[in-house]
């Protein structure tokens, strides 16, 4: 699957799913004073960006140490994305609102795993190892994704009031549908590459 800068950005936005995460994000910030919320949003987005950037730059070395192939990572990435997509389309009971926090959230659950979850880590790892010569494009796509996430979280209260719970749920399921197709494409690409390698 050829990945352009635009498709990489869209893929990362779909995986981080800022719109779908609005209810959990608002719930996580309930105990935070209104005047501190903006600072918390900036801090958590920066931490998530740093985590994903680390995976992007040191992913190849990690794969070599663990003796993992590109094909296995593509298949694993496809499976993870498929499971994430299924949860987006068929959310379980209490999926978003289950975590009630006391005090100010730090790293968990907003930065990790809400933004920089396993699927996002696997995706940036896959992007950087498949085409390391395009690393600046992938950094740009990740930066743009973080800016979108930052803006959505900064205006999460207004967006929730403007769109309503039903519209946000519908958007999340639509994103899940697109992500399902992407995950299947990634999975098939990994299997095809492995079969070609054996032949």
TrEMBL record:
<keyword id="KW-1133">Transmembrane helix</keyword>
<feature type="transmembrane region" description="Helical">
    <location>
        <begin position="41"/>
        <end position="63"/>
    </location>
</feature>
<dbReference type="InterPro" id="IPR002771">
    <property type="entry name" value="Multi_antbiot-R_MarC"/>
</dbReference>
<feature type="transmembrane region" description="Helical">
    <location>
        <begin position="176"/>
        <end position="195"/>
    </location>
</feature>
<keyword id="KW-0472">Membrane</keyword>
<comment type="similarity">
    <text>Belongs to the UPF0056 (MarC) family.</text>
</comment>
<dbReference type="Pfam" id="PF01914">
    <property type="entry name" value="MarC"/>
</dbReference>
<feature type="transmembrane region" description="Helical">
    <location>
        <begin position="106"/>
        <end position="129"/>
    </location>
</feature>
<protein>
    <recommendedName>
        <fullName>UPF0056 membrane protein</fullName>
    </recommendedName>
</protein>
<keyword id="KW-1003">Cell membrane</keyword>
<feature type="transmembrane region" description="Helical">
    <location>
        <begin position="6"/>
        <end position="29"/>
    </location>
</feature>
<keyword id="KW-0812">Transmembrane</keyword>
<feature type="transmembrane region" description="Helical">
    <location>
        <begin position="135"/>
        <end position="155"/>
    </location>
</feature>
């Amino acid at each position: 699957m050829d990945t352009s800068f635009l498709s990489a950005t869209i893929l990362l936005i779909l995986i981080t799913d800022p719109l779908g995460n609005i209810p959990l994000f608002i719930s996580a910030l309930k105990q935070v004073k209104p005047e501190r919320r903006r600072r918390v949003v900036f801090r958590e987005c920066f931490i998530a960006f740093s985590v994903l950037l680390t995976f992007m730059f040191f992913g190849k070395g990690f794969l070599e140490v663990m003796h993992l192939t590109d094909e296995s990572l593509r298949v694993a990435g496809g499976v993870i994305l498929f499971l994430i997509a299924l949860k987006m389309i068929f959310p379980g009971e209490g999926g978003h609102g289950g975590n009630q926090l006391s005090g100010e959230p730090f790293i968990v659950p907003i930065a990790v795993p809400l933004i920089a979850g396993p699927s996002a880590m696997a995706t940036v790892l896959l992007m950087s190892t498949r085409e390391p010569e395009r690393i600046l494009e992938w950094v740009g796509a990740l930066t743009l994704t973080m800016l979108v996430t930052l803006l959505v979280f900064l205006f999460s209260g207004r967006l929730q009031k403007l769109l309503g719970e039903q519209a946000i749920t519908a958007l999340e399921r639509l994103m899940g549908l697109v992500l399902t197709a992407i995950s299947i494409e990634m999975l098939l690409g990994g299997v095809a590459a492995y079969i070609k390698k054996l032949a």
